[in-house]
Structure prediction request, 155 residues.
Amino acid sequence: MSRKYFLLLVSALLMTTSHVYAEEDSRTPVEEFRYITKWSLTLCQAKAKSSFHKVEMAEFTGRPFTYQEADLEISACLKEERAEVKKLFPKALAQVAKKPAAAKLLKEYYAVWLTALDDIPLGASELMTAYYKRQNEASRIATDAWYRFEIEADN
Prediction:
């Protein structure tokens, strides 16, 4: 790749990146809370699926990867995301403090999200089809709780 195209590519990436950060800075605390909770749930679900697939593929690839290693990867994701969201919650709650019903629903959403996060690890002898169904249902319940909050917050 020529130097000219390389510099053009780097410039484009920097402009895109700065736009993303500028957009992130303009979010309200509630918007940031929603974005991070939704993203982190998806991230840890994907990490769990990937970890379990690595365990399944271990016998074919010759690279040992145990259920204990999968659990460690998943636990690390859950711990990190829970800590990140915990920092954001007080700011989001403060934003809706003048609307007690909305504040209550935000707390309920947070509880639903925490439950969904705790439910990410694969159950003992759980089939992957059942796992995917359970994860989809947890995401749907969290989304439903968020919509109830949004409706009340907008009133």
